[in-house]
Amino acid sequence: MSTTDRKWEALIDNLKVSRRDFVFTSLAAGALSLTPRFAGAQTAKPYKLGVLLPSTGTGANYVENAIKGIPLAVAEINAKGGFLGKHPIEIVYRDDQTKPDVGAREAKSIILNDKVQTIIGTYSSAVALAIEEITHEHKVLHIAATSNSSKITQDNYSPYTYQFCPDSNMQSGAVVVAVSKMVKKNNWKSYVSIGQDYEWGRDTHKGFTTELVKAAPQAKEIKQLWFKLGETDFTSYITAIMAAKPDFLFGAIAGKDSETFLQQAGQMGLFKRVPFPGGLISVTELRQLRKTLPRGIIGLARCPFFAHLKEPLMQKYIKMHRAKFGDDNYPDDWACMHYDAVYGLEQAINKAKSIETEAVVKALKGATLDTCRGKRTMRDCSNQLDVPSYVGEVWDSPDYPFPIYKPDTMIVVEGHDVWTPKCEDVEKLKKKRA
Q1: CA dihedral in degrees (355, 139, 335, 64; nearest 10)?
Q2: Which pick of 140, 307, 370, 427 has the fewest CB atoms within 10 Å?
Q3: Within 13 A of 216's CA, how many CA atoms are on the CB side?
Q4: Which residues lie closer than 8 Å to 174 by C-beta, 6 or more apart?
């Protein structure tokens, strides 16, 4: 068995998807193909779904449940015959390694060689922007389920790209809502920023600082700290933050780097000296850092299951996910957003009554979709789904074996309240395309 084959065999085992649902094929080009077992001459044209997510790199810990969850959702749709009850879904998966050049190369390969009709992913905004150029050129639908730079649907707008998560401006705006209240309540005057030195980190920082000046001008940024993706030692950064003695810390950190930073900062006592409101603390961190995550810290989430327990689709995702992966394994933000992407695609195809890309793109335009976050509408001028961001206090719940956000402190900030206000402003940002 080759190294590539062993890699995919290990991934298949990690997916925990039943081999009764799919035929697993390790392709020569390095892709993993998951073909429904019942697909055959009696079915209509299969629908090839490309999935680009990192099983390696800094984003791997965030999208593990998404990589496992997408085949679960697809298997359920395939049990009904596939899209429109007759087009079985075949997944073509590739590891983008959280690298833009790799993502672009793999996107082009699965479009030209595997003939995928839609690409779902990615984790990294830099990778999303890179593959957006490829999907636009080849007129392939691109669903950015978790990549959330505002440039994806504004500056770099493509009619073939749709975003299912709050963009960086919406997310930063939600943090500003919460932090501005704290600034006024605590009379905070200064803060330090720390972030990942790439597209998402820079864009998130810009959104936060721009809006905080308007909401709480008395709070001044006194220092910026930037680090490369994959940092393993934050000692010097934490020391610099303490030396600056800010009233609070703002962070634009995600993925494995977030986990590492939170662990090291907690060990060094940073959070006892400097408040850290609004750092990205998704269900992933709540589960993985359940023993060490400081209680009372104010976190930011994109799609926490506990915020929408009454929604039928969220109930379905929770039941489906726990039944497959264990009682303790609730779907995290990243799994929920990818479930919404798969079922959102299904809804668009049902509306179009066709699997042809142009018809599906037209059906998604301005569509209102059932999601785990309730009924949500695509913004017509940017293809951005109107979804909220969540800010709350980390708290030990009696209902779960890990902390969640304390219900009476959680703020749910709607997307339309914090995105670029006017469509004419969005239009001005869009680059000219052929």
Answers
A1: 120
A2: 427
A3: 24
A4: 166, 300, 388, 389, 390, 391, 411, 413, 418
pLDDT tens column, 24-66 = 555 544 567 777 766 555 568 999 999 999 988 888 888 889 9
**Are residues 393 and 406 in contact, defined by beta-carbon separation less than 8 angstroms?**
yes
Q: Which token pair is 99?
A: 């690298």
Domains annotated on the chain, with CATH: 3-166+310-385 (3.40.50.2300), 169-301+389-429 (3.40.50.2300)
Beta-ladder partners of 25: 33
Whether the ω angle into residue 409 lies within 30 degrees of 0, i.e. cis, is no
Give percent of the chain above pLDDT 70: 91
pTM above 0.70, yes or no: yes
pLDDT in tens, 122-149: 999 999 999 999 999 999 999 999 999 9
233 CB burial (10 A radius; 0-12, 13-18, 19+): exposed
Tokens coding 145: 């389920």
Write down the residue that tokens 């790439």 correspond to: 198
Predicted local distance difference test score (pLDDT) of residue 132: 98
d(CA 287, CA 294): 13
